[in-house]
Design brief:
Blueprint (H helix, E strand, L loop, with lengths): L4 E4 L1 H7 L3 H6 L13 E7 L18 H8 L2 E3 L2 E2 L5 H10 L3 H4 L15 H7 L3 E7 L11 E5 L9 E4 L2 E5 L3 H18 L6 E6 L38 H4 L20 H37 L5 E7 L18 H4 L3 E4 L8 E3 L3 E2 L3 H8 L14 H4 L10 E6 L11 E6 L2 E6 L4 E6 L17 H18 L4
Parallel strand pairs: 1-8, 2-9, 2-10, 3-12, 4-13, 5-6, 5-9
Antiparallel strand pairs: 3-11, 6-7, 7-8, 10-11, 14-15, 15-16, 16-17
Length: 478
């Protein structure tokens, strides 16, 4: 994706980067009607667990800008990913398809650019499209009039970006830089005389590992201990061997190893690592929240906030000490559940909440419908526009299918697949032949595996039949 780079300050980059490249990419409107179509600002963080937003109930962190966004739009309480891993989820969001269909099952497989995405379809229909920030799909961005992305995972401090194939190092903090780039792009779009509707993807690196906060946030939480989650000392008894086999325990994380005292006990090391990790993680989230506030302020300043669909989400969830873990991958709740907030005053009532099971494969068809673009027949997701409008949808899904592939490295999480209903979750680990069944009503922490327990035979039978049915419908054959 380009080679060579030159250093420049953030101010210099923002001053020069968007000139000729941006203007030359905009083509005249094909019809006056395009002026009335909604703009789209899609903001996605990386590894932002839904339980790390105060509007989702987090007690130790305030996210005022995300809370405000939720108060002005709809908050989805049950939004899930279909594969809790960065690249597969990002490809699913773009295509509306599961990993077995779009082909990106892990973080190393390149995304095939011949595929249709909601971005390419919007562009074909007259939208100006751009992506700024983290791409992480092992291939050059496609379908965009403008792109400026981090190579791979990218860096927090003085990161290198690849702008339309050219590497440029920009001084500053990644979250701030990405925000400023997006604001500059919006101003260029607004100042152009064409005013085609836009679709801008603002993809943050934060709060992905290595959890490097900005210096202005380093003192946050310094005078408190963050409470450990209820399952912090989970012993994995009674569960499939995958839980104890996985290599993602906070006690063993290497990130703060140089700070540890040699005479620490394993439990002391675990507690120390947790406080360092969780505080740095939350500090990174604060910068993302500030970014959302700055972007919303810019939409208001430009006078386009009410005609812009604003979405905030994450590519997957994250364990914040639950089960003694960090990272994601497992089909457990903290890993697969993601935040989803949608603001669009023309369709969405403020302070509305939805409880339906919504998936990341639903994003593409939803945005296409809102933009008036036909939805391809081969997508796995379903538009939730009617849910946004507050309508009753009697035939909405009551169960979801999940599948994770990447093994063994990193983190040694065994491949698995399963089905989640509104009450139960059935998980199968095919390499070991083991199963897990959780009753989410009586066991929301997912520590009691009731697979094989007397009294659950009929539930297991029904869920296995449902699992086979969903696999057949989706064309997945484990």
């Amino acid at each position: 994706m380009g080679s060579g780079h030159e250093g420049m300050s953030r101010r210099s980059f923002l001053k020069f980067a968007f000139g000729a490249t941006f203007i030359s990419s905009i083509k005249p409107l094909s019809s006056q009607g395009l002026r009335e179509r909604p703009n789209i600002l899609f903001i996605m963080a990386d590894d932002h667990a839904s339980h790390a937003l105060s509007c989702y109930g987090c007690k130790v962190l305030r996210t005022p800008n995300l809370d405000k966004l939720a108060s002005e739009g709809m908050l989805f309480r049950n939004c899930f990913v279909t594969n809790s891993l960065c690249a597969p989820s990002r490809a699913s969001i773009l295509t509306g398809k599961y990993a077995h269909s779009h082909g990106v099952k892990d973080n190393s497989t390149p995304f095939n650019p011949s595929q249709k995405t909601f971005v390419t379809l919007l562009r074909e229909s007259g939208y100006t499209t751009a992506v700024i920030g983290k791409w992480h799909l092992q291939s050059e961005p496609f379908g965009f009039d403008y792109w400026c992305v981090l190579p791979g995972q990218g860096a927090y401090i003085d990161p290198v970006f690849i702008e339309m194939g050219k590497r440029i190092k920009v001084e500053g903090y990644a979250t701030d830089i990405i925000t400023d780039m997006c604001i500059s792009w919006l101003r260029r779009w607004h100042d152009s005389s064409r005013h085609k509707p836009f679709c801008l993807l603002c993809h943050h690196k934060a709060p992905h590992r290595p959890w490097t906060p900005h210096q202005r946030h380093m003192k946050l939480f310094s005078d408190v201990d963050i409470p450990e989650p209820a399952t912090f000392n989970d012993d994995y008894k009674g569960r499939a061997s995958a839980a104890s086999h996985a290599d993602m325990r906070i006690a063993d994380m290497p990130d703060y190893s140089k700070e540890l005292k040699p005479d620490m006990t394993p439990q002391e090391r675990k507690k120390y690592n947790y406080q360092r990790f969780i505080k740095d993680y939350l500090r990174c989230v604060v910068a993302v929240d500030e970014s959302v506030g700055a972007l919303m302020a810019e939409l208001e300043r430009l006078g386009i906030a009410d005609n812009t669909i604003v979405i905030y989400t994450s590519d997957n969830g994250f364990f914040l000490g639950e089960h003694g873990w960090y990272d994601k991958r497992f089909m457990y709740e903290q890993s697969i559940r993601i935040p989803l907030i949608v603001r669009y005053p023309k369709e969405v009532k403020p302070a509305s909440v939805d409880e339906h099971i919504v998936l990341n494969v639903d994003f593409a068809p939803t945005l296409l419908e809102l933009a008036g673009v036909p939805i391809p027949n081969d997508v796995h997701g379903r538009s939730f526009v009617r849910l946004l409008r507050g309508e009753k949808v009697s035939d909405w899904r009551t169960a979801m299918y999940y599948r994770y592939y990447e093994y063994p490295m990193p983190h040694r999480v065994l491949p698995h697949y399963g089905v989640r209903t509104e009450r139960y979750k059935l998980i199968h680990y095919p390499t070991t032949g083991e199963w897990e069944l959780f009753d989410l009503h009586s066991d929301p922490e997912e520590v009691k595996n009731v697979y094989g327990v007397p009294g659950y035979e009929s539930i297991v039978k029904e869920l296995k039949e449902l699992l086979s049915k969903l696999q057949a419908e989706l064309g997945d054959t484990p």
